[in-house]
Amino acid sequence: MAYMTDENGNYKRTVRCGYCYQMGHNKGSCPERKKDLAASIEKTKARLKEDDYPVGDDWSRRNDQRRLENYTEQLNKMLNKGKNRKCSYCGEGGHNRKTCQERKNDIVDAASVLTNYRKKLLSKMKDVGLGVGAIVRTQVRTQDDTVSALGLVENIFWENVTHDNMFRADDWRPSPPNIVSIRVLGDYTNRWGEKVGKQLNTVPVDVANVDGDVLDPDRTERIHSGYPALQMVSGVDNVVAPAKFLWPETINNLAKVHVDERR
Ligand SMILES: [Zn+2]
Ligand SMILES: [Zn+2]
Questions:
Q1: Which ligand number lies closest to the CA of residue 24?
Q2: Pair 168, 51 in one domain
Q3: How far is the CA of 252 from the centre of ligand 2 (A)?
Q4: Total of domains in the chain
């Protein structure tokens, strides 16, 4: 292993070629070696064609024939490298992960699912006024007990709405997106004796459940057995997501991550 500096001046690990001693490739893909092998093949072929070997010197001719076979084999090996590899996404041959059509289709599907969810979630949040400035009721763990407290919504982590926290009614335990940053109002002390200040919580279940799917009692219980989602007290008039919340580029990047994590 050798090191080279990238465009930012950082060292990164790389390979050094045992043939030309340049960095960034190895002997198996060395452009110099390909050129040299092709030239050797031409030269040997020419010599054999000329057939100008000394009389009685059969050894030189046979030696050139062996060389020609050897050079040709080496060059073919270099040229065919990677051609028999299988796609690491679908397992088929003839293409790689980057050009895999199945992966491309899966990314398109995932992007469409996430776009749909993000649109519906935003619309639900607008309906109830869940945005910066809203007053919500939440649960706070204090020294002795978990109590109900009021909170002020200070921030919404829009970028965290991904496939991982998309609410799916048929999940074993559907989970609402955990994106609401709250300042807890009132004096509460946690079990380390510190004042409870901020809290991150999920959006209300009926907001997360964008299609209004009916949940069986088991699922409902499982949702509430975690940290309880917050409830709206007083919404704001204006709920605005950043423009890039629905940009195809943003969504596509998340869809790629999602698709690649599963294969
Ligand atoms: Zn090289
Ligand atoms: Zn493939």
A1: 1
A2: no
A3: 18
A4: 2
Q: Residue 16 Cα, ligand 1 centroid: separation in angstroms?
A: 8
| Residue-range definition of the domain harbouring residue 27 | 2-79
Tell whether 88 is covered by a domain: no
Q: What is the pLDDT of residues 75-129, one digit of tens each?
A: 998 888 766 778 989 998 888 889 999 999 999 999 999 999 999 999 999 999 9
Expressed in angstroms and rounded, the spacing between residue 24 Cα and the centre of ligand 2 is: 26
The answer to whether residue 91 sits within a structural domain is: no
How far is it, in rounded angstroms, from Cα 79 to Cα 49? Answer: 25
Pair 62, 125 in one domain: no
Q: Identify whether the C-beta of residue 83 lies closer than 8 Å to the C-beta of residue 139.
A: no
The helix or strand, by DSSP H or E, that contains position 70, with its residue range, turns out to be helix 58-80
Q: If we measure between CA atoms, which residue out of 121, 199, 100 comes closest to residue 163?
A: 121
Q: Taking ligand 2, which is a single-atom ion, which protein residues have CB atoms under 5 Å away? A: 87, 89-90, 100
Tokens of 145: 């007990």
Note whether 47 and 108 are same-domain residues.
Answer: no
Closest ligand by atom to 17 CA: 1
Tell how far the Cα of 81 is from the centroid of ligand 2, in angstroms: 18
**What is the model's pTM?**
0.68
Mean pLDDT score of the chain: 90
3-state SS assignment for residue 249:
helix
Task: Give residue 33 CA to ligand 1 midpoint distance, Å.
Answer: 7
Q: Is residue 72 domain-shared with residue 180, that is, in the same domain?
A: no
